[in-house]
Design brief:
There is one protein chain. By secondary structure, the chain is α+β, with helices and mostly antiparallel strands. It contains twelve helices and 36 strands. The radius of gyration is 27 Å and the shape is globular. The chain starts with 7 loop residues before the first helix and ends with a strand.
């Protein structure tokens, strides 16, 4: 019932604004496939923001005399999605020789522009790795999309050769490299390094340390011919895919057949990379046996002196036949990398207190294009496990999950009054996925969900009732009049289901030691209506005081803060009044002082 003391004219004006929007929503909702289109738009696959960082000093004349590193970078670009990814390039000696800021790929022409840029790179004297790393980090800082997966791929021999005449010292270079790596670590920029060792003078340790510190991977090769294979591994690793090897072929001068199995209907792209020292030609047939032209609307072709890349767009499930013809006695290596539109989610638990001795039923589902996958055959092709980490002891228990139906399910027993982190991992021969992390604190009985490293966050009220679009059409058609009558009440009394955008960067400063944690990037898309700072801090018991600060959506993609009694918030070094709501726009920073634990929470809002 509406409160009687509200101004009738205000209510009337609000209703006049509500009804046009409501009617528009209803018209869109009942259009054929309207719901499906909206779902597709909101569930786009992950995209990459990659900086290719290459040493172009004269030392590379020996470690990569044939410039195969250039070919590898071009192959990496060809493997990227046909639309949506971004690529930047930094070529360095002891200074930045040439640079290309992140370019959004929207066409084959964009990829060709990047490859032409690579072909135009020249080599020069001296080397300073720190210069290259600093610039690669800046390129990502200045152009990376918050919703994309950032990465740096470095191709180098790991050796510095400083110009003594410039006054540069190794100590200075080491300090600058350390600072650049620390920034990459804080920003979440994994560095994948490829050590070129054709002349046996690779400085392996420095490249391995770069990768280890930033969460990337390190590769080495004695032959530059291995680079295309390594780039495939990096591409797959970053998107949680697996390279599917095909037995090598020794060409005999005739067409030789290879089977390419597209495992399910959720494959967005199938990348077939063919590496050989001599030119090859290829033919392709779909699962029905019909020959498919290469190239065509659904099959893209890229070629260079060392590789051929065939990209199948939304390929039909089943066995495709690839016929490859090469120069007699030439070795031909073929790899497959499938790009999937699949997300793994762990189901929310019932709202109850969990303690030692309780058994928790766990279930997890796959989602494709935003809709739950109900094909049991897809689940049965995969192996799924529950990874249960005892936060107090650090031990990890691996529990096999049942995949006989259209879900992964199992049970977890709480053995002690400890905090546990639960996540599901599902994999098959060509990819793997990990769910968000479900935290059960048996000390307090609370449950919280935090996002995976590359996924969207979840909030106070996780949306678990995901109905199919067709079901929604029936529901909307049946309750349209009731919805119209209830809309005014819902909008006037509460906004509990309004969503958020952007992310909050969180750091915790210890007032006793002066130590500050690394920044954590908390995506807000999964929250609805409101959430507390305590939830953002994953319900850490010692930070319970932070539940007094509540966040709600503001207008124009802004964030509203409201603090309870006793909570101290500062903006720009001045105390801020949050009792009536403090508005934050992108780039605004605030600090929240917690009295009970002498800690300060530093927050920055980014869109």
């Amino acid at each position: 019932m509406l409160r009687t003391h509200r101004n009738p004219r205000t209510i009337k004006n609000r209703l006049q604004r509500i009804f046009p929007v409501l009617l528009l929503i209803l018209c869109i909702a009942v259009l054929p496939f309207g719901g499906a289109a909206a779902s597709a738009a909101s569930a786009a696959p992950s995209h990459i923001d990659a900086v290719l960082l290459i040493d172009v000093s004269n030392s590379m004349n020996k470690s990569d005399k044939n410039k195969i590193a250039n070919e590898a970078m071009k192959m990496f670009i060809d493997m990227l999605s046909t639309q949506g990814d971004k690529v930047g390039i930094v070529a360095y000696t002891d200074k930045v020789q040439r640079e290309k800021a992140l370019l959004g790929i929207t066409s084959a022409g964009d990829k060709q522009d990047l490859k032409d840029f690579i072909d135009g790179l020249n080599r020069g004297p001296y080397t300073d790795i720190a210069v290259g790393m600093e610039e690669a980090v800046k390129v990502l800082e200045n152009g990376s999309d918050p919703g994309h997966e950032p990465m740096i791929v470095m191709l180098a021999d790991g050796n510095n050769d400083l110009d003594e005449a410039s006054g540069a010292t190794q100590a200075q270079s080491d300090q600058e490299l350390k600072a650049a790596v620390e920034t990459a670590k804080q920003k979440g920029y994994p560095v994948y390094t490829i050590g070129l060792n054709a002349d046996g003078k690779l400085n392996k340790d420095i490249l391995s340390n770069l990768s280890d510190q930033t969460g990337g991977k390190a590769f080495t090769t004695d032959s530059a011919d291995d680079l295309p294979q390594i780039l495939s591994e990096i591409f797959a690793s970053h998107l949680k895919l697996k390279v599917v090897p095909v037995p090598s072929i020794t060409a005999n001068g005739d067409y030789q057949e290879v089977t390419v199995n597209v495992p399910n209907g959720s494959v967005l792209e199938a990348n077939i990379s063919i590496m050989s020292s001599q030119p090859v030609t290829a033919k392709l047939s779909d699962p029905s046996g019909k020959e498919v032209a290469i190239p065509s609307d659904a099959v893209l072709l890229s070629k260079s002196s060392t590789y051929t890349l065939i990209k199948l767009l939304s390929p039909e499930q089943g066995d495709w036949k690839l016929q490859v013809k090469g120069v007699a006695k030439d070795k031909i290596d073929i790899n497959l990398v499938f790009n999937y539109d699949l997300e793994l989610k762990i189901d929310a638990l019932p709202s109850q207190s969990y303690r030692k001795g309780d058994t928790v039923d766990i279930s997890s589902h796959l989602f494709s294009n935003g809709a739950e996958v109900t094909e049991s055959s897809l689940y049965q092709e995969m192996k799924a496990v529950l990874l249960a980490t005892d936060v107090d002891t650090g031990t990890v228990e691996e529990i096999a999950l049942d995949n006989s139906g259209a879900e992964f399910k199992g049970a977890f027993e709480i053995k002690d009054n400890h905090a546990y982190e639960l996540k599901v991992r599902a994999e098959e021969s060509s990819f793997y996925r990990e769910s968000d992390v479900l935290t059960i604190n048996a000390k307090t009985g609370t449950v919280a969900t935090s996002p995976p490293a590359t996924g969207a966050g979840t909030g106070e009220e996780p949306v678990t009732d995901q109905k199919s679009p067709n079901t929604l059409y029936y529901i909307i058609g049946g309750i349209v009049l009731l919805l119209a009558a209830a809309a005014a009440f819902w909008l006037l009394r509460r906004r509990s289901n309004r969503g958020f955008v952007g992310q909050l960067v969180v750091e915790v400063l210890d007032g006793n030691t002066g130590e500050k944690t690394y920044p954590q990037y908390k995506k807000l898309a999964g929250f609805r209506g409101k959430f507390t700072l305590h939830q953002l801090l994953q319900l850490a018991p010692e930070l319970k005081e932070s539940e007094k600060l509540v966040f709600t959506p503001g207008n124009n993609d802004r964030l509203m803060l409201r603090g309870g009694e006793g909570i101290s918030v500062e903006r720009s070094g001045r105390a801020a009044d949050t009792s009536r709501g403090l508005e934050m726009k992108s780039g605004d920073r605030v600090s929240v002082s917690l009295q009970t634990v002498d800690k300060t929470i530093l927050l920055e809002y980014l869109i």
